[in-house]
Amino acid sequence: MYKAIIRPILFCFDPEKVHHFTFSLIRNISKIPGVKGLFKKMYLLNDKALERELFGLKFKNPVGLAAGFDKDAKLYNELANFGFGFIEIGTLTPKPQSGNPKKRLFRLKEDSAIINRMGFNNGGVQEAVERLKKNKGVLIGGNIGKNKVTPNENAVDDYEICFNALFDYVDYFVVNVSSPNTPNLRELQDKEPLTQLLKALQVLNFKKPNSKPILLKIAPDLTDDQLLDIIDIVKTTKIDGVISTNTTISRTGLKSNNKVEVGGLSGKPLTQRSTEVIRFLAEKSNKAFPIIGVGGIHSAEDALEKLEAGADLVQLYTGFIYEGPRLVKEINKAILKKAQ
């Protein structure tokens, strides 16, 4: 029904407006008595065999919603009813910011892809904290970044502000230095500044009564040498894992006319590269740390491929938009079948 009727209608309109419309729709529909239960019956698959324990956390199933979809933690309780084992909110910054000028979100229908240059648009970390206080048992990841106006030499301050503000309200943290849509942000992926940033966050982390897992989200455009640096950085800083991968700046093999738009590309064109990065990290590190696989998961087969390459969990974003909420359950069913 989604792909045959709902998606064609939604895809007639501006992507960003559709995003806000669907958020309002899901929120309002979920207020109707019985609807939450109906969603859970349709999409949620409860099975002990799906549970995963990683970095001290228990995930109900290994399929999560990637950051960027619910940036401001506005809909995580409702989105969990679609069967996700965890929800990652953000990217959040210390101060509110409007992001890049519109239009900044583009569908590439021929490629089953999306280009975005949102630019960390969000209402600021404190606003999100107030919403997270209403969490009804959803496992939450907090994806944090820096404000556009903050120079890289002061970036650590921004990450520390977000870390402290979110600490009591998220289950794990994700350090985002890999978005292509904030000027110079990816320079923080270089070995020295990244090591300093992660060490600073770990100092804060270990001062808390109970530390929280910290993960690093990396770009798919890193070279093999840079990926080896990432492995070394994880070992040096003792962070808990890596999310592989963010969006790409590559445009190789695209068919759509609007492929020339500036921004990060997600969706099917990213499937192979994100899996390659997962496999490289897993093999070269001898599976020394957990990996969350994200990028181009549009089918259960795509998810299984990432898990077999070395991912411990997977996340959806563009595949969720193109394939609909049934994809979550299809992946979980395939994982169960594989385990039998």
UniProtKB/TrEMBL annotation:
- Which pathway does the UniProt entry assign to this protein? Pyrimidine metabolism; UMP biosynthesis via de novo pathway; orotate from (S)-dihydroorotate (quinone route): step 1/1
- Tell me its cofactors: FMN
Q: Which GO terms describe its biological process?
A: 'de novo' pyrimidine nucleobase biosynthetic process; 'de novo' UMP biosynthetic process
**InterPro entries for the chain:** Aldolase_TIM (IPR013785), DHO_dehydrogenase (IPR050074), Dihydroorotate_DH_1_2 (IPR012135), Dihydroorotate_DH_2 (IPR005719), Dihydroorotate_DH_cat (IPR005720), Dihydroorotate_DH_CS (IPR001295)
An annotated GO cellular component: cytoplasm
Sorted alphabetically, which keywords does the UniProt record give?
Cell membrane, Flavoprotein, FMN, Membrane, Oxidoreductase, Pyrimidine biosynthesis
Q: What class of enzyme is it?
A: oxidoreductase
Query: What Pfam families does the annotation carry?
Result: DHO_dh
Lineage of source species: Bacteria, Pseudomonadati, Bacteroidota, Flavobacteriia, Flavobacteriales
- Compartmental location: Cell membrane; Membrane
> What PROSITE patterns does the annotation carry?
DHODEHASE_2
**Matches recorded under NCBIfam families:** PRK05286.1-2, PRK05286.2-5, pyrD_sub2
Q: What positions does UniProt annotate as the active site of this protein?
A: S179
Q: How is the cofactor bound?
A: Binds 1 FMN per subunit.
Q: What is this protein called?
A: Dihydroorotate dehydrogenase (quinone)
Gene name linked to the record: pyrD
Major location, coarse class? membrane
**Homology family:** Belongs to the dihydroorotate dehydrogenase family. Type 2 subfamily.
Tell me the residue numbers annotated for binding FMN: A67, G68, F69, D70, K71, T91, N143, N176, K217, T245, G267, G296, Y317, T318
